[in-house]
Amino acid sequence: MITESTLYLITRLDSINKVFQLLTVVSLMAIACIGTLLLFHKIEDRMEEVENIKCFLKYLKVSTMVLAFSVLCLVLIPTTKEAIAIYVIPKIANNEQLQSISTGTLNIVENKFQEWINDLVKEEDE
């Protein structure tokens, strides 16, 4: 049985994915900026320059870890449509009462699920 908290979480999955997309873009931009600064930064014998480079490298490591985490989350967290399909399709396939319904009704349900699957394929291609 699906609870209110599970239903709420399923409806928030697209927002969670958008947060991780934003984190991915921001961390990529940070890596690009820090890499550019490191590339054009002139290394001199002064101690403050060495400290600046250490600071840049620290920020580069943090940005890389955030990027890896956000990409991993983007891959592992399903969208709302995927989560609904994951939850509903096995319930329908294993329900004996639904298996005795007329073929016309099953065709309507099957067409709707096919539309959802096609939408998911289109979203993944984009």
Produce a short descriptive summary.
With 126 residues, the chain is an all-alpha fold.
Supply database-style keywords.
126 residues, mainly alpha, 2 domains, 5 helices, 86% helix, 0% strand
Topology:
Elements: H1 4-40, H2 47-76, H3 80-93, H4 96-99, H5 103-125
Q: Can you characterise this structure?
A:
With 126 residues, the chain is an all-alpha fold. It has five helices and no strands. Helix 3 packs antiparallel against helix 5.
Q: What characterizes the major β-sheet?
A: none
Percent of residues in helices: over 70%
Envelope shape: elongated
Q: State which percent range the strand residues make up.
A: under 5%
Secondary structure class reads mainly alpha
Record field, number of beta strands: 0
